[in-house]
Amino acid sequence: MPIVNRIAEFQPDIMAWRRDLHAHPELLYDVHRTAGFVADRLREFGCDEVVTGLGQTGVVGVIKGRKPADGRNVKAIGLRADMDALPIHEETNLPYQSKTPGKMHACGHDGHTAMLLGAARYLSETRNFAGDAVMIFQPAEEGGAGAAAMIKDGLMDRFAIDQVYGMHNIPGIPLGSFAIRPGPLMASMDKLVIKVEGKGAHAAMPHKGVDPVLAGAQLVVALQSIVSRSIDPLESAVLSICSFHAGHTSNVIPQTADMLGTVRTLKPKVRDLVEQRMKDVAAGVAQATGTRIELNYNRGYPVVVNHPDQTDFALKIATDIVGAANVDANTTPIMGAEDFAYMLEARPGAFIFMGNGDSAGLHHPAYNFNDDAIVHGSSYWVKLVEGTLAA
Question: pTM (2 decimals)?
């Protein structure tokens, strides 16, 4: 495989960084140790500029090529890695497992950060490109919208980024493989908060109350008809009620029932339709049961939409590294969400999946990033910069 030989030479260093980060997971924006580790490495590599505190705790390293980018359409390319972990108790029993109970790198962000650091080290040494390579280390991908926070702090304009790229490891995709597609790749993520208010009563006298549990159960069932009967079967939508809490004992009909859930879609029109139908269904169930139903539909991450030209180029780079047989050029979209969507709304670019091999799934307590994938990920970043900003 035509991976970058120099990357392969210092793969042990990248692995050591990754394992250090794995042992010290941090959540959301509270990634001070991780951000400090990243900034220290970037300074050691000789990056021309290292900026901290962007989007609270984000870090940006700028590496200037040997030649200026005068007269070029693309003068600066942004590469993004996420730094935060998850509130999960690790169950790997690895020598470098989390030293903080209840926190774990269960999504591979330790690997993402280490691979981008590896690329930064190589690009700082060689600088075989014209323009700026902007290394973006982002906090709070796991539900905190760290990408939006960095953009709000001026990420794109301050560093004059013309194009932006992201990557995520995926268990189940073979090691040494990539997967990508133009257009929608990952779903939007919306949060549902529902309160059903009835009238409490003795469980032996239900006729004297209004049962929010029964109304809530009817609502859960009725909401499933939205995906099955209101959405075109050729479109994609997920509506899941994941939490239902009501009452505290066996002989009292409670006053209220509370639910939490999520909606995932791949198109804005489907997103709009699901939200409107949820409101209609909730109003109907409330009228039929005599309850008051409060539905809060909170829009979160938008759809990850890959831009066609940048996707084609990312596909070419991935193919150069691992061969056409190991790249899925039209992979099936997944209904998970990613806040890299905000960056793709701000600038053209592409998000790619990289194989993690036969590992436990993402967000699983036994998950571990595959260190053998490092050479593929770091080589992809290097070739993406050198190809886009060819000297």
Answer: 0.96
